[in-house]
């Protein structure tokens, strides 16, 4: 058990009930941990524990606190090491990082306090919170954002349109907790992804109204949480969720995103340093990774139309015992008289559509009827394929397929190891104090 986890375990053993109790405003902001002086309070941690348990009933306060501490360290490192644009290269088309953090905060609060936030989001509550709301039409949007027919390199505001949008107040509000403010078109524009910005430039007044409603609802949720938990706890919770986004962005810099086919410069550099000896060792240790199907023994039934194909498919026994009989009775292929048996076909057959279909079919199952790939309005046959056997082999150790797959796997493994080593270094260098215990190598 690492030092952070050990200290967190001691905290939860002593104060576990405190973490799950409903906290009075700011009374629940008792500090349960500090990371280089940054406080983590019990109230914000309690919300994160409850949120984690919505999907994992076994989630513990110890594990959640450890994750919060780890993400704080990684988030600070990310911001100190990379420009925001490098961490969030998608921000030109996606939601800005601060907007994403706000949206995540509202989503977590609504999930954890579902009944309470539903009560806070009534039509009457929204009416009472609204001091004034502008009736914006398409002409007002055009005056602020410009002609929708104008050619744009990207959907963004220039200085002049930003000033006009900032002058157009859409909503003045006063929250039940006393906070008051105004929502301008510039504010709302900044909270959009590229699809939202396009809708505004296209003068979609209904979209604008929905976005104003959504922003007012979000403000009411946060106001309700501040009155329930206190401002400090809500601010800490938002930071913890922003840290999580920064951790994800930092991981993607290491090529550890959800879609590993999205290339990264870091992974590309690691792949370039993979040697032939590395690949040979990886091949020997992961030979099953390079398994391939060299040939399949196939039967098929070719039908003249979809209705017949569906009827025959329904009549097939799951074990294929009547496949040959139905082929002889219904198939329009010349081999139908022989039960549709095509014998063995090798991997080179994948170059045509039927061979690709046969190699894609799991063995020992009746395939679903598939229409031959001709124009939609052209007459087409339908095929039912069954693979009775596969002949397997392995890609050669020196093949391009092995080089590509192995180098990618090795690079990914090394990236994960590098990211784990970074995490460990940050822990050792930090001053982490948990419930009176101190862990870490900092002074």
Automatic annotation (TrEMBL):
<dbReference type="GO" id="GO:0003755">
    <property type="term" value="F:peptidyl-prolyl cis-trans isomerase activity"/>
</dbReference>
<feature type="signal peptide">
    <location>
        <begin position="1"/>
        <end position="29"/>
    </location>
</feature>
<comment type="similarity">
    <text>Belongs to the PpiC/parvulin rotamase family.</text>
</comment>
<dbReference type="InterPro" id="IPR050245">
    <property type="entry name" value="PrsA_foldase"/>
</dbReference>
<keyword id="KW-0697">Rotamase</keyword>
<keyword id="KW-0732">Signal</keyword>
<protein>
    <recommendedName>
        <fullName>peptidylprolyl isomerase</fullName>
        <ecNumber>5.2.1.8</ecNumber>
    </recommendedName>
</protein>
<dbReference type="InterPro" id="IPR000297">
    <property type="entry name" value="PPIase_PpiC"/>
</dbReference>
<dbReference type="InterPro" id="IPR046357">
    <property type="entry name" value="PPIase_dom_sf"/>
</dbReference>
<keyword id="KW-0413">Isomerase</keyword>
<dbReference type="Pfam" id="PF00639">
    <property type="entry name" value="Rotamase"/>
</dbReference>
<feature type="domain" description="PpiC">
    <location>
        <begin position="293"/>
        <end position="389"/>
    </location>
</feature>
